[in-house]
UniProtKB/TrEMBL annotation:
It comes from Golovinomyces cichoracearum. Its main location: endoplasmic reticulum. It comes from the Eukaryota. This is ER membrane protein complex subunit 2. Residues 98-184 form the EMC2 TPR-like domain. Belongs to the EMC2 family. One of its GO terms (cellular component) is EMC complex. PANTHER family: TETRATRICOPEPTIDE REPEAT PROTEIN (PTHR12760). Pfam families: TPR_EMC2. InterPro entries: EMC2-like, TPR-like_helical_dom_sf, TPR_EMC2. It is a peripheral membrane protein. Gene3D superfamilies: Tetratricopeptide repeat domain.
Amino acid sequence: MYNSSIVQITPSLASQISRQAPDILRNTTPVKYLDFLIANESSDLWFTYEGLILTCLRTGDEKSAHTSLQRLIDRFGADNERVMALAGLYKEAVTRDDGELYSILEEYDSILLRDPTNMLVSKRRITLLTSLGRLSDAISSLLKLLDSSPNDAEAWAELSDLYVAQGMYPQAIFALEELLLIHARLGEILYISGSIAKIGMEKVMTDSLKSFCRSIELCDNYLRGYYGLKIVTDRLLALQDQGNQSSEPGLSFSFQKLKDLNEVAVTKLSEIIRRSARNELGWQGYKMTELIAAKEILNPRSVSQSVTR
């Protein structure tokens, strides 16, 4: 449960990066000299060290991993939340027996006793519990973590995997449903499926609409959820305009309800675009590609004109 983008790289690429680690470390400036170069300090350097720790541990280059970790400790301090998690990861990787792993587990418990909000150490503790075969304890810890951070998609995915390992399939399905709500992927896939369906298109689109509605219930400012709400209500309104005003039996959204939901999506997308452009607190972090797509669906002519200028 730590930096999955690094963990998912291929073994051959990890090996290639690890072989370059000594050269990278020799060609970067140690922290003790950075006071003279602070204006040129880049966050990319620290992400490079973090990536080296993970890839070098995968390939057994403990020396380069330790050097990278020490650079981060020198820069941010041993009490930095992210550094603490990386230090724990390093210790786990270089231990030789379960006794040492249980000592690391006690260290995690001590850290969390002082600071229960340390999410990264909490996740490392859960991963360690899993590797020690203590799946029930890992599940309990994940549930506690999700109580304080219900929108953590990584945690829901891990919880689902643990439930499957325990044969608790209804609970695993529930965890995956929560994960899908966060990402609104279910709504997106249903929409794509409905777009190519020859029979029952309106039913599939209605299911897609329900999924998008659930996603924005969970996360009020979720751009992708409102974007999906807009495109699927556009499609359903078009279907009803084409002579399907009566709708298929069992569908729960009237023509007026679809119009209301469409207006909600337009209003919220406009607010997200406006407040994100102002860089308002709490309205940051949206991907530029998603903001452009939202602008285009609200005013396609304006966006196309701005692109061609």
